[in-house]
């Protein structure tokens, strides 16, 4: 926009002064402010270019979840995933991220505060192997052993996995998207919102397309400024992550930790149990909460079918606690395959009655 000139009267001098519009005191052009005419023109331009005029949909790869979400996650959304420790939040989020890059040409970036890049590689090999070989494919433990073995004479990763079930295939499958998947070895000391924003922008520039963003996990993102309380820090981070999602027009999926007090076995975790929950629930577009099915299934399902107890332990219930753009309070279940670093992708709607807290101890 060119420099503009305007005249304004100043009451104290009783005269007119000329204000140069390019000076710092003039109102700057706000790129966020658009007339509906501009919105219509932008939309028409997208249609003419053969692009989608609405939000882009990124399937999660979990069939029952994609059905509930009318296709999947959407660009511009902040999605939170919470649940008790060790229930598979990283596992499920990584499967979603992998799905986002295998379908299409878009990049992805994983801000990993918990696991190093090699651990992520091991998990991805497991997911790829199971994608073809199902439950017969090699386990995470086998993958670890293969990496730990020495003097194997293998000259490539593919050769090193040659004698495993699906390992060589998995390594080849990874090569299809390895240049589009960026793993950020994030640190609770140094990787704040500014670093996240810069890395997302660098990946977007490198690929010419905005990446799917995964943050594991939100409360680890440091906020400068001593003396801020937990709630203020988390509010800042969640607002900024939402802003990144809107700015780059991608989904941002963040794992969230729970309040310590709510981490009680047998108690169903809800959105209000997330650490810093009021801001989290307010800013997020979609909130998933994972719970162990065994912990939250009503007592009568256990009493009359004792063999069911063991089976329930194999399943995780994912509740869509919030969904700004669609239906919520949906209860889905997915079977754990943690020895292979994954969940079964089909899933289904929970049929049993669920409760908030177990009232007996076995
Ligand atoms: N090699 C393995 N074999 C079997 N199970 C494993 C193996 N490695 C990890 N697991 C289990 O898989 C589960 C899911 O791990 P994941 O890291 O996804 O959980 P999480 O919910 O993100 O946990 P946290 O809150 O600790 O980060 C955990 O219970 C873990 O103990």
TrEMBL record:
Residue stretches making up the SF4 helicase domain: 51-348
Superkingdom of origin: Bacteria
Residue intervals passing through the bilayer: none
A GO MF term: ATP binding
SMART domains the record matches: AAA
Pfam families from the UniProt entry: DnaB_C (PF03796)
Gene Ontology CC annotation, any one: primosome complex
Any Gene Ontology biological process: DNA replication, synthesis of primer
Keywords, comma-separated and alphabetical: ATP-binding, Helicase, Hydrolase, Nucleotide-binding, Primosome
Cross-referenced PANTHER family: REPLICATIVE DNA HELICASE, REPLICATIVE DNA HELICASE DNAB
Protein name: DnaB-like helicase C terminal domain-containing protein
């Amino acid at each position: 926009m060119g420099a503009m000139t305007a005249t304004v009267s100043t009451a104290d001098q009783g005269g007119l002064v000329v204000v140069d519009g390019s000076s710092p005191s003039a109102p700057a052009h706000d790129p966020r402010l658009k007339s509906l005419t501009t919105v219509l023109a932008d939309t028409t331009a997208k249609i003419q270019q053969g692009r989608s005029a609405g939000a882009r949909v990124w399937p999660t790869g979990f069939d029952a979840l994609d059905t509930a979400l009318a296709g999947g996650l959407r660009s511009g959304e902040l999605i939170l995933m919470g649940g008790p420790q060790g229930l598979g939040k990283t596992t499920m989020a990584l499967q979603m991220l992998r799905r986002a890059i295998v379908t299409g040409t878009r990049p992805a970036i994983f801000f990993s505060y918990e696991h190093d890049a090699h651990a992520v590689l091991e998990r991805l090999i497991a997911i790829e192997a199971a994608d073809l070989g199902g439950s017969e494919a090699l386990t995470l433990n086998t993958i670890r052993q293969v990496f730990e073995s020495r003097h194997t004479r293998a000259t490539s990763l593919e050769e090193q996995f040659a004698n495993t079930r699906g390992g060589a295939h998995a390594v080849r499958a990874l090569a299809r998207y390895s240049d589009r998947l960026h793993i950020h070895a994030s640190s609770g000391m140094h990787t704040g919102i500014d670093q996240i924003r810069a890395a997302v922008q660098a990946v977007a520039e490198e690929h010419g397309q905005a990446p799917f963003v995964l943050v594991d996990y939100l409360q680890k993102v440091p906020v400068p400024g001593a003396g801020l309380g937990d709630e203020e820090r988390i509010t800042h981070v969640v607002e900024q992550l939402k802003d990144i999602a809107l700015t780059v027009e991608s989904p941002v999926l963040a794992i969230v930790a729970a309040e310590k007090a709510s981490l009680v076995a047998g108690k169903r975790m809800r959105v209000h149990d997330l650490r810093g929950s009021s801001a989290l629930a307010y800013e997020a577009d979609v909130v998933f909460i994972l719970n162990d099915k065994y912990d939250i299934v009503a007592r009568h399902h256990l009493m009359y079918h004792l063999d069911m107890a063991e089976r329930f332990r194999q399943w995780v219930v994912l509740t869509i606690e919030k969904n700004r753009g669609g239906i919520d309070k949906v209860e889905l279940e997915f079977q754990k395959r943690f020895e292979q670093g994954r969940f079964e992708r089909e899933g289904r709607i929970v049929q049993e009655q669920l409760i908030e807290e177990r009232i007996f101890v076995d």
